[in-house]
Structure to design on (1460 residues):
């Protein structure tokens, strides 16, 4: 499907060609201070942010004498700075370099990084890559130097002074924390201003004065005086006609009725409402008016009744449900205004949602209110002598009008009595209203122009208003025209939407005439994209029916400034109307450029007339101080007059900013002694002093350096096959901030009958249209089912609520298209891999920096025990025989079932005898030779252990294999078959049940059952002794094979010799203090790694008793493991992450029940999670917190670390300091650097130490590529040397050369003799403040993640788990997540734990969070059902299996979103 191609803006090319990039990319060390646009305006080099920070770095580096410290000792770092002085104004740089080359003869040939990455291919790679410093020969002292002016200088002093001056010119930077200069720490790109962008060139505008308010007219002194006058002298005159939904007049309110009813209401409010014998209301109190749009009569009575009683009416919308869109904000408004009483009508009160008591329900976020119904029968008649204290027009508040801002917050604009009267007089004069005129009003009479014209100004002039309700317009869009015709109305008040609707409905209406109209006021004339087309089209059709062109009068208004401007008909002295055709591109830079109508990318606007009488207007800059704009510049229109609002009620801070602005000239001189009010309208003053409006500040979206108006983008989207696909008025455009810039989101309701095909066709066309017309990318385009967007009270979409739902993930779209690749242009530059610093330089650098080489070791084995016992215990088979002989009845193993009962046990002698029987069977039935491999396919239990020792007894090599799962043979059996084949097993030992399974019909469907080797079942083998028990000729003989599938899906078997096996047991024994008197509980799978060693080997070696809990049994009884720990009072217990997760999830609410059952975990000294990954801190912490109630000591839980080359490197054990946690900067980690930060700082990542290093184990951190040793706190590969390292891989094809270096690696520098095994895991060492058992400072090992799993993206190294953690936090419906890369795209798979209709909500949230926290663009979001992400027995995600499943299209996803 065609997508907008990625636009490369012109600005980039020009800037790159004009400036030579500096030769180093600098690491500004206040790293991460994301550059904001606007920060660069002061620097001389506008184009390259990298020049400046780079320069002051050099300055600071060289003002200390040890310039040599600038050399790097860091993976991926490089020697400090070798810029060509040509790019550096001033000699500061040259000085630094001279010092540097003199002091440190270290390779300075650093390749210049490509600063132009991703913009244009630049030719500057061809220069010879030498530190060419002008006039400074390499290695020579700084004798010939040049100052900034190019004058040669001989003394060191003057260059220091010059340097100082240069330093003073620049803002101070904190000194270098580290001794190397590294890549830009992920500074977000700042969009550079385009040198060709249009700039305003006109002269400064002046303040525009309106005509003076007419003096001498016999105005009533106040609005209430006018009401009293008409009510008593002209009681029969019609004031207001209300219509029902058929268009019939249901009620005409006369001036007499309005006066008497308002008096009645005022009397009731002041005298009849009490609480605790106090009057409920006192003058000046605020009262809410809750009236439906169909009842203008009651509203008018309520409004004037409040004014007469000196109360302040606050009109609001009728709440329809308990949780309306925006209801909470309205509640905030009512609360902040201190409203306690709401007035409403009988019918409306009956329709409000009720609580159980029958009272009106409390709405979300509303203060408690009393409701008063004001229908006649509920009001009391005032006594004859009662008179209200009728107001004169003072500065007290008359009413409060609500206003909803772009963010959705609702504020109240207060209008004083004086402003109210001034507004009515100004409108009367501007519109030429005369007594007893008729006005048809289609607008909402509760606020804005509908209130000012239809409720207030009309009473001043004794006019008759015909009010057309919204419900009638929906049924009959022509109703207002028919009423103009039948009432011979002189004026009508409409919105462009009403004109548009009536155009669609006018066919066949012959008999309407609009000749009576002298003014058709278009209240949203300020909406540039909609109003002019409606006005023109309307005139076209209705000119033939008596509509005169000059009658159409657009006006502009704002809640703060009330009416801003209105067009006057010629008979009232208005100039002829004007049109302006403006370039969209110019507008986006805030500049007026006239264009031609043929183009698509133009905006046509009409004037909204002249300034109001008695007011003055000016246009000020949108950002910063209110400077007057130039004549060709767009700015915010400000009004100064006595008829504007006075404040936001109760909000002093923003009031001052908006209602008391003082515009100033370019010289800073105030333009007037009276303050101005900001209108929130963007526009300019055109010819004939006409006001033009091009948009609202609220709808402004600032993308990069350009501004776009939401209304214009909506208009563009609607112009794409307008009426066919999306309903007009059911489309919302707003911006969300992602990665420090606004991103445009477009949400539309699609027609119910639209197909998927139509939707995508429409979406791609909209993207292209917006791209070509506005030159801006749309970040997200979402389509929702018809009628599901939150509605504003009178039609239209509630934008802020829609935005809220989008961000919360509750919008439930049915189609989503995201285009982050095209819009997000401020990602950090991809990291350039630097030529590696050699391992020798690294070591020198570390020495210079005073950092020690990162190596650590467990306790020395030699000091720990007599070597005599170690010699005796070299072979486990010997140990078992010795124990069977000396302590025959000592129990070694207890196996529990799901009910917690012991199903089998083994004492030393029983195990010995069972092993003998197995050995005899192998030799007789299996006819095996010494050294043959035997596959042990057993469920977890004592049989497995007996079979293992049976193999040792007859000299065979056991291979433990997890039995196939009977319900899932298809996937589990091939793995069994593969291990049996790869291990070259000559025989399979197993139980009867498994034997039947291996030979079943179902098995035949999965694998070729004819190729199994001999299968022996050991369930009923005869009691036999072996003639002699095999004793290996040397400890280096192979004892067993350990097979395991890595997370990347590689099946790897390692060889364990007898020496390694006993060394492993010895280390564990010492670390955990295991003796025959101890009991430990094990809830692990016994098939590989440390789980196997603990289950099968350690008890025999140390003689302690092992309580065996098969993890599978926890599925039917979650508390089994913890109950066993409590029952057997185990000091030491082992489990896996999956077991811990099952306990945390399954027992979260049951700790009380367990306590009742007597479960007590206070016996536990240490509970270790056996793992081959980074410790999962969140899980271990929640486990500790949860079971603290059962007595689990706070510091008991820790983790172990092992891998293929060494199954147990770290293990907490019972002695030694508690595991420590550090917080590292995640951004530095991507550059293979470790920077420690405070807890809770941004981008911090907690890492827990993986337990203590085992006795006899040595660990070093090595550079992944140069294989040189690294300094403390550097991230590198963990290398291990220990007597229990495995001796090598037993691989599929015996390609041992491929992996030889995994087991026999040597450092390339330093100690090059020791043989190490490479773990394949990244980590770092850190010396802590704690003391270890031997009294020295304790070295902690932190594992960051597997090297195979890491993702290389944008030149940086990411660990999948970090991205996954962010994604899981993004929405509560995300149960699990896994990420992998596919052809350079990041693929995120999320499991949806919720309704399928919510699936698409996740796409944008996932994309947002990964951009925000990791600076990566997600390429594909795959939403799947829970349980799709494969997890192995250790609880690790199998991301590569998932990737294969995704590529083979086997995931059956709910939705796949390809982010374009």
């Amino acid at each position: 499907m065609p997508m907008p191609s990625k636009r490369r803006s012109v600005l980039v090319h020009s800037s790159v060609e004009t400036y030579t990039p500096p030769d180093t990319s600098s690491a500004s060390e206040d790293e991460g201070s994301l550059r904001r646009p606007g920060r660069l305006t002061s620097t001389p080099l506008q184009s390259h942010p990298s020049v400046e920070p780079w320069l002051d770095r050099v300055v600071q580096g060289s003002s200390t004498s040890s310039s040599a410290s600038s050399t790097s000792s860091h993976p991926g770092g490089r020697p400090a700075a070798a810029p060509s002085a040509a790019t550096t104004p001033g000699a500061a740089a040259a000085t630094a370099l001279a010092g540097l080359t003199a002091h440190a003869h270290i390779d300075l040939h650093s390749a210049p990084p490509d600063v132009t990455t991703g913009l244009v291919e630049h030719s500057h790679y061809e220069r010879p890559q030498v530190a060419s410093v002008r006039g400074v020969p390499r290695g020579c002292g700084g004798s010939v130097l040049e100052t900034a002016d190019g004058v040669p200088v001989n003394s060191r002093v003057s260059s220091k002074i010059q340097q100082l001056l240069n330093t003073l010119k620049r803002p101070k930077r904190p000194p270098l924390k580290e001794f190397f200069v590294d890549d830009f720490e992920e500074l977000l790109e700042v969009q550079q201003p385009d040198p060709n962008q249009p700039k305003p060139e006109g002269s400064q505008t002046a303040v525009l004065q309106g005509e003076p308010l007419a003096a001498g007219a016999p105005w009533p002194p106040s609005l209430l005086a006018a009401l009293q006058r008409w009510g008593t002298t002209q009681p029969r005159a019609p004031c207001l006609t209300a219509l029902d939904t058929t268009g019939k007049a249901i009620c005409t309110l006369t001036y007499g009725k309005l006066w008497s009813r308002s008096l009645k209401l005022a009397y009731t409010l002041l005298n009849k409402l009490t609480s605790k014998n106090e009057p409920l209301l006192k003058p000046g109190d605020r009262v809410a008016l809750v009236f439906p749009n169909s009842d203008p009569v009651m509203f008018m009575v309520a409004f004037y009744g409040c004014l007469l009683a000196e109360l302040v009416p606050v009109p609001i919308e009728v709440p329809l449900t308990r949780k309306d869109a925006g209801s909470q904000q309205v509640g905030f408004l009512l609360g902040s205004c201190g409203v306690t009483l709401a007035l409403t009508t009988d019918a409306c009160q009956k329709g409000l949602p009720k609580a159980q008591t029958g009272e009106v329900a409390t709405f979300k976020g509303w203060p408690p209110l009393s409701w008063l119904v004001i229908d006649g029968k509920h009001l009391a008649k005032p006594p004859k002598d009662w008179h209200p204290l009728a107001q004169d027009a003072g500065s007290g508040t008359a009413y409060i009008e609500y206003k909803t801002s772009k963010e959705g917050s609702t504020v109240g604009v207060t209008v004083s009595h004086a402003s109210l009267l001034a507004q009515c007089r100004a409108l009367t004069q501007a519109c030429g209203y005369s007594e007893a005129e008729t006005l048809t009003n289609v607008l909402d009479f509760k606020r804005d122009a509908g209130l000012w014209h239809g409720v207030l100004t009309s009473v001043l002039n004794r006019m008759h208003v015909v009010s057309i309700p919204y419900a009638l317009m929906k049924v009959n869009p022509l109703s207002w025209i028919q009423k103009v015709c039948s009432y011979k109305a002189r004026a009508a008040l409409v919105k462009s939407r009403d004109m548009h609707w009536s155009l669609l409905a006018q066919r066949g209406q012959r008999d309407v005439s609009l000749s009576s109209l002298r003014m058709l006021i278009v209240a949203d004339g300020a909406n540039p994209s909609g109003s002019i087309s409606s006005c023109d089209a309307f005139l076209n059709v209705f000119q033939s029916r008596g509509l005169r062109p000059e009658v159409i009068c657009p006006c502009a208004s704002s809640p703060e400034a009330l009416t801003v401007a209105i067009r006057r008909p010629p008979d009232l002295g208005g100039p002829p109307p004007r049109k302006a055709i403006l370039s969209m591109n110019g507008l986006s830079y805030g500049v007026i450029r006239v264009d031609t109508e043929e183009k698509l990318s133009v905006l046509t606007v009409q004037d909204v007339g002249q300034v109001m009488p008695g007011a003055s207007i000016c246009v000020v800059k949108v950002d910063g101080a209110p400077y007057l704009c130039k004549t060709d510049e767009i700015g915010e229109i400000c009004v100064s007059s006595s008829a504007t609002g006075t404040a936001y009620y109760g909000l002093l801070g923003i009031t001052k900013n908006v209602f008391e602005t003082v515009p100033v000239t370019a010289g800073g001189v105030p333009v007037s002694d009276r303050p101005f009010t900001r209108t929130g309208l963007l526009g300019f003053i055109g010819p004939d002093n006409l006001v033009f409006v091009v948009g609202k500040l609220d709808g402004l979206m600032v993308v990069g350096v350009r501004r776009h108006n939401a209304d214009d983008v909506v208009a563009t989207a609607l112009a794409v096959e307008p009426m066919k696909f999306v309903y007009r008025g059911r489309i919302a455009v707003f911006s969300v901030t992602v990665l420090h810039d606004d991103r445009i989101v477009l949400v539309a309701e699609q027609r119910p009958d639209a197909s998927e095909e139509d939707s995508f066709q429409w979406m791609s066309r909209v993207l292209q249209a917006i791209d070509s017309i506005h030159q801006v990318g749309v970040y997200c385009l979402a389509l929702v089912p018809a009628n599901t967007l939150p509605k504003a009270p009178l039609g239209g979409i509630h934008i802020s609520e829609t935005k809220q739902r989008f961000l919360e993930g509750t919008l439930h779209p049915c189609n989503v298209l995201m285009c982050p690749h095209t819009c997000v242009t401020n990602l950090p530059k991809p990291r350039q891999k630097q030529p590696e610093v050699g391992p020798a330089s690294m070591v020198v650098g570390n020495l210079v920096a005073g950092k020690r080489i990162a190596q650590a070791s467990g306790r020395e084995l030699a000091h720990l025990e007599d070597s005599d016992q170690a010699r005796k215990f070299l072979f486990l088979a010997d140990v078992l025989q010795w124990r069977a002989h000396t302590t025959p009845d000592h129990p070694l193993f207890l196996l529990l079932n799901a009910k917690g009962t012991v199903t089998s046990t083994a004492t030393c002698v029983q195990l010995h005898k069972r092993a003998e029987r197995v050995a005899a069977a192998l030799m007789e039935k299996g006819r095996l030779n010494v050294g043959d491999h035997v596959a042990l396919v057993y469920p977890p239990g004592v049989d497995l252990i007996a079979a293992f020792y049976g193999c040792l007894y007859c000299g065979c090599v056991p291979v433990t294999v997890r039995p196939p799962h009977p319900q899932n043979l298809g996937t589990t059996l091939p793995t069994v078959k593969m291990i049996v084949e790869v291990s070259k097993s000559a025989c399979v030992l197993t139980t009867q049940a498994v034997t039947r399974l291996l030979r079943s019909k179902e098995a035949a469907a999965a694998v070729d059952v004819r190729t199994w080797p001999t299968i022996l079942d050991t369930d009923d083998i005869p009691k036999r002794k072996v003639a002699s028990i095999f004793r290996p000729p040397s400890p280096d003989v192979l004892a067993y094979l350990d097979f395991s599938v890595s997370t990347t899906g590689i099946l790897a078997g390692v060889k364990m010799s007898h020496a390694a096996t006993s060394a492993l047991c010895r280390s564990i024994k010492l670390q955990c203090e295991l003796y025959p008197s101890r009991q430990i509980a094990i809830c692990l799978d016994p098939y590989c790694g440390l789980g196997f060693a603990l289950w099968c080997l350690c008890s025999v070696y140390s003689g302690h008793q092992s309580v065996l809990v098969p993890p599978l049994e926890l599925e039917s009884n979650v508390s089994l493991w913890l109950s066993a720990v409590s029952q057997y009072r185990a000091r030491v217990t082992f489990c896996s992450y999956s077991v811990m997760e099952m306990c945390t999830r399954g027992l979260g609410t049951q700790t009380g029940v367990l306590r009742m059952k007597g479960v007590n975990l206070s016996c536990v000294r240490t509970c270790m999670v056996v793992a081959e990954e980074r410790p999962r801190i969140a899980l271990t912490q929640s486990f500790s917190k949860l079971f603290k109630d059962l007595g689990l000591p706070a510091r008991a839980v820790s983790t172990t670390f092992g891998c293929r080359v060494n199954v147990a490197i770290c293990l907490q054990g019972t002695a030694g300091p508690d595991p420590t946690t550090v917080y590292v900067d995640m951004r530095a980690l991507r550059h293979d650097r470790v920077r420690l930060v405070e807890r809770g700082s941004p981008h911090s990542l907690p890492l827990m130490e993986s337990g203590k290093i085992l006795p006899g184990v040595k660990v070093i951190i090595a550079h992944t590529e140069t294989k040189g040793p690294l300094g403390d706190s550097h991230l590198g590969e963990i290398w291990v040397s220990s007597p229990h390292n495995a001796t090598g891989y037993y691989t599929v094809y015996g390609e041992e050369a491929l992996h030889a270096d995994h087991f026999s690696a040597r450092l390339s520098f330093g100690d090059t003799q020791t043989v190490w095994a490479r773990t394949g895991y990244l980590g770092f060492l850190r010396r802590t403040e704690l003391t270890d058992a031997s009294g020295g400072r304790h070295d902690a090992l932190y594992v960051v993640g597997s090297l195979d799993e890491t993702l290389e993206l944008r030149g940086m190294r990411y660990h999948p788990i970090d991205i996954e953690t962010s994604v899981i936090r993004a929405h509560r419906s995300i149960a699990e997540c896994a990420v992998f890369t596919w052809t350079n795209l990041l693929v995120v798979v999320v499991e949806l734990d919720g309704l399928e209709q919510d699936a698409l909500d996740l796409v944008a949230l996932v994309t947002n969070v990964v951009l925000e926290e990791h600076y990566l663009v997600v390429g594909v979001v795959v939403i799947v059902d829970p349980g799709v992400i494969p997890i192995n027995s250790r609880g690790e995600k199998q991301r590569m299996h998932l990737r294969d499943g995704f590529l083979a299209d086997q995931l059956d996803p709910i939705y796949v979103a390809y982010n374009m």
In short: Confidence is low (pLDDT under 50) at residues 1-157, 170-185. The longest strand covers residues 1317-1331.
